[in-house]
Specification:
With 387 residues, the protein is an alpha+beta fold. The protein folds into 2 domains: 204 residues, Ribosomal Protein S5, domain 2 (2-Layer Sandwich), CATH 3.30.230.10; 172 residues, GHMP kinase, C-terminal domain (Alpha-Beta Plaits). The chain has 11 helices and 12 strands. Strands 1, 2, 3, 4, 5, 6, 7 and 12 form an 8-stranded mixed β-sheet that branches. α3 packs across α4, α6 packs across α8 and α10 runs antiparallel to α11. The chain starts with a helix and ends with a strand.
Length: 387
């Protein structure tokens, strides 16, 4: 990919000295829609992500080109005008990151030329956070800024919340910035306490299924679910001294569920509480080497997301249920915000090819177009690549 991107850069901007960067996507094994509810999440990085090649210039202009959006051509950003513009599409994330750097007192005294290319499929694997952290590590290197990864993780989340307008939690940015090869991260999103967990899957592999039904966080009712959970939390706080839904055990929730007087809000809160506990149980199962239990909890997670949180859709359900019917599959669920995007499944290594073949046929017959499937490896978080 580096050579391909280098060739693209030279074609667009001409030959010069460049630096290379990579920022992975992520898959959340379990713990969906818990990160903005003060719960636990259990994500890992994936070997697919966003690549960037950059070279400084002497202007106060940033020139941006994405090989994923060639029709946009080169988008120019004046460092003195970082206002949001619909027409700039993906470049808005870059502008949002620069604004966060400026808020921290870091000044960009020259521009740069940038070419990027991503290979993250569909939605649900966090391409926006991948781009944000790519820009962060790139700015840190190009300008010699001194700040640590955790600070850049927080800044990237602020881009989504304050600039793009999505009330997401910190999970996506955290795993992409702090990820470690062959490890998942168990993260308490309330305290940001975390631990790297060896992802020892034995005879099984992680298989990503892309429904090819595209959506963005901004149109996935993400903010609506956030608001519903906040309202449910306020109702619970009339009875309990809690700061988030993630503070509650299942027993505590059931004993006090009557405080939530709206049926829809009750379902949203129930998912947040039960999913948090499923995530902790999944960690215990993985540590005990009980992948069957891990897979069962993944299946439960999907049903909760479908029935209580109502963020699944026909495409996701079709792929998940077709997966579960196949020999060698021990768990399958939607991953990400929902309403399209991707699924994640645990599949026996020697069953992968057959599973993909059979599920592909079922999915296309039911939905009318094809899904894509990707076996992924677990790599490190965002950073510079060797030249």
């Amino acid at each position: 990919m580096k050579q391909e991107l280098k060739d693209i850069f030279y074609k667009v901007y001409g030959e010069r000295q460049v630096s290379y960067f990579f920022s992975p996507g992520r898959v959340n094994l379990i713990g969906e829609h818990t990160d903005y509810n003060g719960g636990h999440v259990f994500p890992s990085t994936i070997s697919l992500g966003t690549y960037g090649v950059v070279s400084s210039n002497e202007d106060m202009i940033i020139r941006c080109y994405s090989d994923n959006y060639p029709a946009l051509g080169i988008v120019e950003v004046d460092l003195n005008d970082l206002s949001f513009s619909e027409s700039d599409e993906w470049v808005n994330y870059l502008k949002g990151v620069i604004i966060q750097f400026k808020k921290k007192g870091f000044e960009l005294n020259h521009g740069f030329d940038l070419a990027i290319k991503g290979n993250i499929p569909g939605g649900g694997l966090s391409s926006s956070a991948s781009l944000e952290l790519l820009v962060c590590v790139m700015l840190r290197k190009v300008y010699g800024f001194d700040l640590d990864m955790l600070e850049m993780v927080k800044m990237s989340r602020a881009v989504e919340n304050e600039y793009i307008g999505v009330n997401c939690g910190i999970m996506d940015q955290f795993i992409i910035g702090m990820g470690k090869k062959d490890h998942a991260i168990l993260l308490d999103t309330n305290t940001l306490n975390y631990k790297h967990v060896p992802l020892e899957l034995g005879d099984y592999v992680i298989l990503i299924g892309n429904t090819n039904k595209k959506r963005t966080l901004a149109d996935s009712k993400y903010n609506e679910r956030f608001s519903e959970c906040q309202t449910a939390l306020k109702m619970m706080q009339e009875k309990l001294d809690i700061s988030s839904l993630g503070d509650m055990s299942i027993e505590c929730f059931e004993e006090n569920a009557g405080a939530i007087t709206d049926g829809v809000l009750l379902k949203r809160a129930r998912h947040a509480v039960y999913e948090n506990q499923r995530t902790l149980k999944s960690y215990d199962a993985l540590m005990a080497g009980d992948l069957i239990e891990f897979g069962r909890l993944m299946n439960e997670s999907h049903e909760s997301l479908k029935e209580d949180y109502e963020v699944s859709c026909k495409e996701l359900d079709t792929m998940v249920y077709a997966m579960r019917e196949q020999e060698g599959v021990i768990g399958s669920r939607m991953t990400g915000a929902g309403f399209g995007g991707c699924t994640v499944s645990l599949v026996k290594k020697d069953s992968v090819d057959k599973v993909i073949s059979v599920v592909s046929e079922i999915y296309e017959n039911e939905i009318g177009y094809k899904g894509d499937f990707h076996g992924v490896e677990i790599g490190n978080g965002a950073g510079e690549l060797e030249a």
